[in-house]
Design brief:
There is one protein chain. With 304 residues, the protein is of the alpha+beta class. 31% of the residues lie in helices and 37% in strands. The protein is built from 10 helices and 13 strands. It has helices spanning 17-30, 45-53, 66-76, 95-100, 106-115, 142-147, 150-156, 159-167, 230-242, 296-303; strands at residues 2-8, 33-39, 59-64, 84-89, 117-126, 130-132, 135-139, 175-181, 184-196, 219-225, 250-255, 257-270, 273-294. The strands form 2 sheets. Strands 5, 6, 7, 8, 9, 10, 11, 12 and 13 form a 9-stranded antiparallel sheet that branches. It is elongated, with a radius of gyration of 19 Å.
């Protein structure tokens, strides 16, 4: 029989996996898989489980939110021959699932795993110590993703991020940083920055307006410098959430590699989870480093 490691975060989203777990296991078992299931117990648990048991598996399936997916990816990246990845999204926002066009209904997502074909995706290398799959960010709003309680996320979904973020506007902090990429240098005081490989951030699809491909070897970068007046701040927020035209405070570009340097430590968030506080950060795009089973994007590419 084929071997599957099934990693489940039972608290993600509105804990919907609890009502579907037996049905999903029955589906996978009926498809000929011998299933080893692990229910996550603590932060980073998924990473350790995948590192310990992932080698030799035919398939690793993850059910949870973007943070759980990040942990599983970090585990897979430590394996010599990582198996294909299957994803059943069950979080509050599921940004990366939106980019992959994975069905929101859990049983449909599970069937997508069985029917899907390997689809190569880029992985982000963060300081050669950690990996991220769709976003590395700092500044305004980023702390919201890991400071918002799981209960509040379950209750409000992605609106929880917005509500908590609005509260932080009065205490908007600027970070003097030097950013280097492709022979270019930018030195400014930034209030927000994100390096992404996704079409959706925090449930909003308007934040990433550049053309996005999940396996083109490039990140989409957005940096916002410190506003000088309340009107400037209002224009920035309008751009971020109302999809208005960019202004002089917003920098956007694409690159496969970049470096951030600051005098004081800056907190970073990777896929919605705290990624550490650093004065120097180097981010590298590892092109097509992971295969995820997906039918939707495969069919779309075939149609083209």
């Amino acid at each position: 029989m084929k071997k599957m490691l099934f990693v489940v975060n039972p608290r993600s989203g509105r804990e919907q996996i609890r009502n579907k777990l037996l049905e999903i296991l029955d589906l996978f078992s009926g498809a000929g898989y011998q299933i080893q299931i692990h229910i996550t117990q603590k932060p980073k648990d998924a990473t350790e489980v995948v590192k310990q048991f992932g080698e030799g598996m035919d398939l690793v399936v993850c059910s949870g939110g973007d943070g759980t997916l990040n942990e599983v990816i970090n585990g897979l990246m430590e394996l010599k021959t990582p198996p294909c990845l299957g994803y059943i999204p069950a979080g509050s926002t599921n940004d990366y699932a939106s980019s992959l066009q994975i069905p929101k209904a859990m049983m449909e997502a599970a069937q997508n795993v069985l029917s899907g074909v390997p689809y190569p995706i880029d992985i982000g290398d963060f300081c050669q110590e950690q990996y991220f799959i769709y976003i590395a960010a700092f500044g305004a709003f980023t702390e919201v993703s890991y400071q918002t309680s799981q209960d509040k996320k379950n209750l409000l979904g992605h609106q929880a991020y917005v509500l908590e973020g609005v509260k932080s506007l009065a205490a908007l902090k600027a970070y003097p940083m030097k950013v280097e990429w492709d022979g270019q240098i930018l030195e400014e005081e930034f209030v927000f920055g994100m390096v992404t490989n996704t079409i959706s951030v925090g449930g909003f699809k308007g934040l990433v307006t550049q053309s996005v491909a999940l396996n083109d070897g490039e990140f989409e970068v957005l940096l916002i410098r410190k506003p000088r007046t309340p009107k400037d701040l209002s224009n920035i927020i309008s751009y971020m959430f109302l999809k208005e035209e960019p202004n002089d405070y917003v920098y956007k570009f694409k690159t496969s590699r970049l470096k951030f340097t600051s005098k004081d430590p800056v907190d970073w968030v990777l896929d919605g989870e705290f990624g550490g506080s650093r004065t120097e950060v180097e981010i590298i795009n590892l092109r097509e480093r992971m295969n995820i089973l997906n039918l939707s994007l495969y069919e779309k590419n075939v149609e083209k």
